[in-house]
Design goal:
Strand order of the largest sheet: 1-2
Order of helices and strands: HHHHHHHHHHHHEEHHH
Helix content: 55-70%
Strand content: under 5%
Distance between the termini: 58 Å
Oligomer: single chain
C-alpha cells in the first residue's frame, strides 16, 4: 500500500496548491485561507501520511480500508466545504459587540470557582496517590466520574476558552486581563492533564491572532512544535513506565500520538455497532432520552487498545462513521460536516465575529482529526461554546427587550 499512500500525498499536495492559488483567479475564494477547513484537512493528512512513509518500517502496514476511507473523507470533506463556502451567502449585518458586564461577571465567577476546584482536585490526588504520581492521578480522576473532583466546574473549560477568545480578539489587548485568563487556562490544564484542553487554548488563540494579522505563520509553526515536544513531557510527568531508554520512549510516544491511529483503523469492523449510529450519533440518543423517549443511550467507554505494534486506542476521525455505517457513513458525514463548517467559515470571513470565534474552536478539532472524531461526538461542547459566546455578546434587561448586540 506504500505506493498508493505516496500517490495520495501527491494528490493532496496538488489539491492544496490549487486551493492556495485560487484567490488569484477566483474572487470568491478567501485570502489568508491556509487555515480554512479544506486546507487544514489537506495539510493535516499530508503531514501524517508523510510521517508514515518516513517511519513505515517501525509500524505494521497501513490497511486498504484506511486508504479507501481517508481518500473518501479528504476529497468529500474538502470539496463540500469549498462548495459550501462559495454558495453560502455572506454575512451582511453589523459586528457583534462584547457585553462587558456579562464578561466581567463570568470572569469573576471563573476566578472564584476554578482555583477552588483545582485545589480540591490536587488535594484529592494527593490523598489517593503518591506525590510522585500526582499528574498521573490527576489525569485518572479527571476521566473517572466517581473520582472527578471538579464537579460542574469541569464545564468551565469552555468558559475559560471563551474568555481567552474574547481577550485575544480585542482591538487593543488588555495584557493584565489576558494574563489572568491564561492563568485560568493553566490551572484547568493542570487539573485535567488533558492534551485536548491545552490544544484548544493554544490553537484557538493562534488562529485568531493570525486572522487578525497580529502574527505570521512562524509563531504558529513554533507553537505546534512546542506542543509536540510536550507529549513526552506529559508522559514523564504522569509517571509511566521507564523500561525503555528515554530516546526510544520519546520516539514511540511521538509515533503513538501521530500516526499509530492510521494503522489502528485497520482493526475497525464496518457496520459493527450494537445499535444504529451508537458511536457517531450518541449525542442525539442522549437528547431523546432526556426528552422522555424510550431509547438506550450508548455508553461512553474508552476504545480498546490494539497493537500497531505500539499500543493505541485512537482510530482517526474515520472511526465512528465507519464503525456505524461503513464507507457510506464516511462519505455522508464528510459531506455534511464539510458543508456546515464551510458555511460557518464563510460567515466568519465576511464579518461575523461570533462565527469566527466558534470556528477558532472547531479549527482545533480539525487539527486533531488524525487522532479522533470530535465534531459529531463533541456536539455538546460546540453547543456550549455557541451559547457562551452569545451570552458574552448579548445585553440582558429585565424591563426591556433583550438586545442582540451588547455594549
Amino acid at each position: 500500500m506504500l505506493p498508493i499512500v505516496i500517490f495520495l500525498i501527491l494528490a493532496f499536495c496538488g489539491m492544496l496548491a490549487l486551493f492556495l492559488l485560487s484567490p488569484r483567479y477566483f474572487s470568491y475564494m478567501p485570502e489568508r485561507q491556509i487555515f480554512s477547513p479544506w486546507d487544514t484537512t489537506l495539510i493535516v493528512w499530508i503531514v501524517i501520511l508523510s510521517l508514515y512513509v518516513l517511519v513505515h518500517d517501525e509500524l505494521y502496514p497501513v490497511s486498504e480500508q484506511f486508504v479507501c476511507g481517508i481518500t473518501i473523507w479528504v476529497f468529500t470533506f474538502s470539496l463540500s466545504s469549498v462548495v459550501s463556502f462559495i454558495l453560502f451567502p455572506s454575512y451582511k449585518k453589523e459586528k457583534w459587540e462584547v457585553c462587558e458586564k456579562n464578561v466581567d461577571f463570568i470572569t469573576v465567577l471563573a476566578l472564584v470557582l476554578v482555583p477552588f476546584a483545582v485545589y480540591k482536585a490536587v488535594q484529592h490526588a494527593y490523598m489517593i496517590g503518591s506525590p510522585e504520581e500526582l499528574f498521573y492521578t490527576l489525569r485518572m480522576q479527571a476521566i473517572d466520574p466517581e473520582e472527578n473532583q471538579l464537579g460542574f466546574v469541569k464545564y468551565f473549560v469552555y468558559v475559560v476558552n471563551v474568555l481567552l477568545i474574547i481577550e485575544v480578539s480585542r482591538n487593543k489587548i488588555r495584557k493584565w486581563r489576558l494574563a489572568l485568563v491564561v492563568v485560568l487556562c493553566v490551572l484547568f490544564f493542570i487539573a485535567t492533564m488533558a492534551k485536548i484542553t491545552l490544544f484548544m487554548y493554544i490553537f484557538s488563540s493562534l488562529y485568531l491572532l493570525y486572522e487578525d494579522k497580529r502574527i505570521s505563520l512562524r509563531p504558529i509553526v513554533i507553537g505546534m512544535l512546542f506542543l509536540i515536544s510536550l507529549i513526552p513531557v506529559m508522559y514523564f510527568l504522569r509517571g509511566n513506565s521507564n523500561e525503555e531508554t528515554n530516546a526510544e520512549l520519546v520516539g514511540n510516544l511521538l509515533l503513538i500520538y501521530s500516526i499509530a491511529s492510521v494503522i489502528a483503523f485497520g482493526y475497525v469492523s464496518p457496520c459493527s455497532s450494537a445499535q444504529w449510529g451508537e458511536t457517531s450519533l450518541r449525542f442525539f440518543y442522549v437528547i431523546l432520552s432526556f426528552l422522555g423517549f424510550d431509547v438506550d443511550v450508548p455508553t461512553t467507554a474508552l476504545q480498546d487498545f490494539c497493537d500497531t505494534p505500539l499500543p493505541t486506542n485512537v482510530y482517526t476521525v474515520l472511526f465512528p462513521y465507519y464503525k456505524d455505517f461503513g464507507f457510506t457513513g464516511i462519505a455522508l458525514f464528510a459531506l455534511l460536516e464539510g458543508g456546515i463548517i464551510g458555511a460557518l467559515y464563510k460567515s466568519s470571513k465576511t464579518g461575523n465575529n461570533i462565527a469566527k470565534y466558534l470556528y477558532a474552536y472547531i479549527f482545533t478539532l480539525l487539527m486533531m482529526q488524525f487522532v479522533d472524531e470530535q465534531i459529531f461526538q463533541g456536539l455538546s461542547s460546540i453547543i456550549q461554546m455557541s451559547i457562551l459566546l452569545l451570552i458574552c455578546h448579548t445585553k440582558f434587561s429585565f424591563n426591556k427587550n433583550v438586545e442582540r448586540h451588547g455594549g
